[in-house]
Amino acid sequence: MKKIGIMGGTFDPVHNGHLLIAENACEQLELDEVRFIPTGQSPHKQGKKITNGMHRLRMVELAIADNPVFVADDRELRSAALSYSYITLQKMHEQAPDDALYFIMGGDSLRDFKTWYHPEIICSCATLVAAVRDDCDREQLMSYARELESLFSADVRLIRTPNLSVASSELRRRVSSGETIRYQVPEAVRIYIANNHLYEKQSEHTEDI
């Protein structure tokens, strides 16, 4: 049996905050592997523009290249269907039922998790892992966790992670404004963004979803 962490997200672009959460989850939960799964067609972002999946996957590959425990997984990008977390986790569970899946998210996501599509299926397939930053209200997060445990028999784990205020939307804005993103993303990702002129003119490298 393997303990596998799941980091889903648009990763537009992947940044050091994502990597830090994954590393802390890996260490504190003794995970064998963390799979980074870039969102394909996100149901939450329909009608918005998003960077082409090929670029987002390549940035993830570059970001995790020096960590043998981190794996890039393109399953949602290869699918023509909308990317729902419950479908991805359900398929992963069916393919390897003996593996233990840990669905990693930001602490704030616990508040709205019950409104997600089929949260009960997610909870039946995976342990929920919420990253708790130093500036988070731990008691409030514990309250959300207890509610999910009651509603969906969820197994919720809180992990500690240092404060690192990085947001993909802010990184895109900084690039488009000519500001530096050095030290907020891995250097290989920063170079890739510059070489491919990502976020300078969104229309050239984006797709409607």
Give short descriptive properties of this protein.
alpha/beta, 6-stranded parallel β-sheet, single chain, 20% strand, two-stranded antiparallel ribbon, 8 strands
Structure in words:
The chain has helices at residues 16-29, 53-63, 75-78, 85-95, 109-112, 119-125, 138-152, 168-176, 187-195, 202-205; strands spanning 3-9, 33-38, 49-51, 70-72, 100-106, 126-132, 156-160, 206-208. With 209 residues, it is of the alpha/beta class. Helix 1 links the parallel strand 1 and strand 2. Helix 2 (53-63) runs antiparallel to helix 9 (187-195).
TL;DR of this structure?
The protein is of the alpha/beta class. Helix content is 42%, strand content 20%.
Layout of secondary structure:
Elements: E1 3-9, H1 16-29, E2 33-38, E3 49-51, H2 53-63, E4 70-72, H3 75-78, H4 85-95, E5 100-106, H5 109-112, H6 119-125, E6 126-132, H7 138-152, E7 156-160, H8 168-176, H9 187-195, H10 202-205, E8 206-208
Helix pairs in contact: 2-9, 4-6
Count of DSSP H/I helices: 10
Q: Which spans of ≥5 residues are poorly predicted at pLDDT below 50?
A: none
Shape: globular
Distance between the termini: 36 Å
Total E-strand runs? 8
Major sheet strand order: 4-2-1-5-6-7
- Seen as an oligomer or otherwise, the chain set is single chain
Question: How much is the average pLDDT?
Answer: 92
Largest sheet: 6 strands, parallel
Q: Can you give the helix content as a percent range?
A: 40-55%
Radius of gyration: 17 Å
Beta-strand percentage? 15-25%
